[in-house]
């Protein structure tokens, strides 16, 4: 076989592969409401190796989203965690308000990218509208820092919140934990660990949380999963965080929130996810199991919503504005003075 024929064959295969990918993307796009068709949907977002991860870390907006006027943002270095490393956080406090409640917030990014400052808009909104102190954790990222680094950082921040409650002016009985995507998965695991350690948590706010590493084992993900967190990205992210590829059995504590069998006694929860999200099934199942365990859990299922659509279109698409408002209302109710 000549080199020309080999190259011709490779070109044909590449063309067919591209055509199949475009066809799948068009089928998936048909399920997305017009108001949610953001330009990012046309990009081949996929983080499946160290090279693409390095590119993604540069492309993800790291300068920080705009914050609300009148909200003071401070960077703090907290005391060392279990492995003697300090934890970096951003705190958000509305000027002229004495917060009595607090939210520990954990950013998304698959545990492999992102930073606390990318959540400036949301965290400053919570501080402004609820008058709460918000603490956003700059946890260590995988694969450089695999499990349990991020979990330890976030749990350490929660313990600091409790230990410093008097100095911060907050009621330790009115502390919530929340996060989006990977941050939501870490939040759920932190809440479980807090329950087992006797650290009170009032409420858990989970936006399309990344709860189950076994989702990466699926061989038949839906076409809609190409937006915007893909199966390949999910597999790479879990492998990076776990320190090894996902497997059916993994008994390490709090490795993935969905693996916990006994959910009795966990704090009330709000879980929001779209029906086009790769995490839809694991989130719906976790909400069901919480309810069956007697835990008050509100599940909001958003038709036509893909992963992270609210972050892209809050204030632009009515459904995403309503989605974020519902999460905020749930948090407001949970943190209200008893």
TrEMBL record:
GO molecular function: hydrolase activity
Domain Alpha/beta hydrolase fold-3 stretches: 103-308
Pfam annotation, one family: Abhydrolase_3
Keywords from the UniProt entry: Hydrolase
Hydrolase listed as a keyword: yes
Domain of life of the source: Bacteria
Name of the featured protein: Alpha/beta hydrolase
Species whose genome carries this gene: Streptomyces litmocidini
């Amino acid at each position: 076989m000549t080199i020309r024929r080999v190259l011709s064959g490779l070109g044909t295969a590449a063309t067919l592969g591209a055509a199949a990918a475009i066809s799948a993307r068009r089928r998936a796009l048909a399920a997305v409401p017009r108001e949610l068709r953001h330009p990012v949907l046309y990009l081949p977002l996929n983080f499946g190796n160290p090279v693409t991860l390095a590119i993604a870390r540069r492309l993800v907006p790291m300068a920080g989203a705009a914050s609300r006027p009148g909200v003071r943002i401070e960077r703090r270095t907290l005391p060392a965690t279990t492995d003697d490393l300090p934890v970096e956080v951003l705190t958000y406090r509305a000027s002229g308000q004495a917060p009595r409640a607090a939210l520990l917030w954990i950013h998304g990014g698959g545990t492999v990218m992102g930073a606390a400052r990318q959540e400036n808009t949301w965290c400053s909104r919570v501080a402004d509208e609820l008058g709460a102190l918000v603490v956003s954790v700059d946890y260590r990222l995988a694969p450089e820092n695999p499990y349990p680094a991020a979990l330890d950082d976030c749990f350490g921040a929660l313990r600091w919140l409790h230990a410093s409650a008097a100095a911060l002016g907050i009621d330790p009985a009115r502390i919530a934990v929340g996060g989006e995507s990977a941050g939501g998965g870490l939040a759920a695991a932190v809440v479980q660990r807090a329950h087992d350690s006797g650290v009170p948590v009032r409420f858990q706010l989970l936006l399309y949380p990344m709860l189950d590493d076994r989702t990466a084992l699926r061989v038949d993900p839906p076409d809609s999963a190409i937006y915007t967190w893909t199966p390949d990205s999910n597999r790479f992210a879990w492998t990076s965080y776990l320190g090894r590829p996902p497997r059916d059995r993994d008994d390490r504590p709090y490795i993935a929130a969905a693996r916990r069998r006994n959910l009795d006694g966990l704090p009330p929860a709000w879980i929001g996810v779209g029906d086009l999200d790769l995490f839809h099934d694991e989130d719906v199942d976790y909400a069901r199991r919480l309810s069956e365990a007697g835990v008050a859990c509100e599940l909001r299922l958003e038709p036509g919503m893909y992963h992270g659509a609210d972050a892209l279109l809050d204030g632009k698409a009515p459904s995403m504005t309503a989605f974020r408002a519902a999460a905020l209302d749930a948090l407001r109710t949970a943190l209200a003075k008893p």
